[in-house]
Amino acid sequence: MIEEFHRIKRLPPYVFAEVNRLKAQARARGADIIDLGMGNPDLDAPQHVREKLAETLGKPRTDRYSSSKGIPGLLKAQAAYYERRFGVKLKPETQIVATLGSKEGFANMAQAITAPGDVVLVPNPSYPIHAFGFLMAGGVVRSVPAEPTPAFFPALERAFQHSIPKPIAVVVCYPANPSAYVADLDFYRDLVTFAKKHNIFILSDLAYAEVYFDDNKKPPSVLQIPGAMDVTVEFTSMSKTFSMAGWRMGFAVGNERLLAALTRVKSYLDYGAFTPIQVAATAALNGPTECIDEMRMTYKRRRDVMVESFANAGWVIPPPSASMFAWVKIPDQYKALQSLEFSKLLIEKADVAVAPGIGFGEYGDDHVRIALVENEHRLRQAARNLKKFFAMPTDSLHNVIPLAQRAQP
Question: Are 236 and 79 in contact (CB under 8 A)?
Fold first, then answer.
């Protein structure tokens, strides 16, 4: 008898795959799809980083197995970055682990610390791996609010009181994916207090730390709070900061006990990133910062163009203060469709792809996420397409039903 595998049964169909199939079908028909769905940077990695990669490639020692937790120079470079950026001192040998991106780091941390039935508090909406990493590890997820307001903590208290067994960890992600919320140090101070009071760990996703648009409001690290190191591991990524998404280079930093567990799991699963990539990542962290400033300015220009041009098209976009995303409510006249069907409709009728909010949790189903991964010209073209789409009579929405059927594999 053929039955679904246990872990696969815990994973719903990946909604983004359905949108991707529609994009591929539309492009096969010759449509020029403006893809604002996946947060996949279109900028070049810095030249000095690419040059260091080329310089290191092909040498006998660098073609061999690498170090699972990261080569020493890379760990030292990440420690220097944390001290320079956040004023946080880390011991490279025990408080830093290099990961294959923050996504892999989260998934393997879940494998390392989760027993069957363990409860983890996860924001909803949030990046999928924050929940599904623990579900794949046999854990149970309890949703908590995503916005870092004073209302967050009463909700956290209720979730803790009504969870059996008691939660082992709480996940936070600021600047947030998908919602672009930003936390401040006061919020983190209360979070550390909560974690110590209830004897749980904090897992912080800080992948968008350098994508911010106000120099006076740089996103902080929870590790800046005294005592946070006792209960926290924080995940960062080079994907957005240096446009190195395909290089798969990130870090987990913080609590030594948690990182020792992560290191043991990773030692069975991988030999680390390719050594030339780790060497190039070291050059990125130790190198000039002008490339980071240019990245920020590029995304800020795109944000401003998107906000202005989409508003002119009839869709008001709240300007995000950080991250490379806008988190946008579905226009009132299309609310009944919810996010997946609305996203399909945009591909079919406007040649624009966005990410459906349901992919980030059920509380995101009245939103879509728009990524700033096309240039200003393409964003203005997307706005023109949307303006024509919004001018269409809504009684033509019956076409969505056959569209959904065509999306089936």
Answer: no
d(CA 71, CA 401): 53
Q: How many residues does the chain have?
A: 409
* Contact call for residues 137 and 114 (beta carbons, < 8 A): yes
> CATH number, domain at 400?
3.90.1150.10
Residues with Cβ within 8 Å of residue 206, at least 6 apart in sequence: 173, 174, 219, 221, 234, 235, 236
Model pLDDT, residue 407: 42
Q: What is the mean pLDDT of each run of 10 residues along the chain (409 residues)?
A: 74 77 90 92 95 92 89 98 98 97 93 96 95 94 94 94 94 96 97 97 97 94 98 96 94 98 94 95 96 96 97 95 96 92 94 95 95 97 96 68 42
Which domain CATH number covers 53? 3.40.640.10
**Inside any domain, residue 1:** no
State which of 286, 303, 333 marks the end of a domain: 286
Q: Is 260 helix (H, G, I), strand (E, B) or coil?
A: helix
Amino acid present at 396: S
Cβ neighbours around 198 below 10 Å, total: 16
Cβ distance 368 to 354 under 8 Å? yes
Asked, for residue 100, whether it belongs to a domain, the answer is yes
8-state DSSP, 39: -
What range does the domain containing 236 cover?
47-286
For residue 397, what is the DSSP state? G
Q: How many CA atoms lie within 13 A of 147 on its CB side?
A: 6
Q: Which neighbouring-strand residues pair with 237?
A: 250
DSSP class of residue 330 equals P
Q: Please count the structural domains in the chain.
A: 2
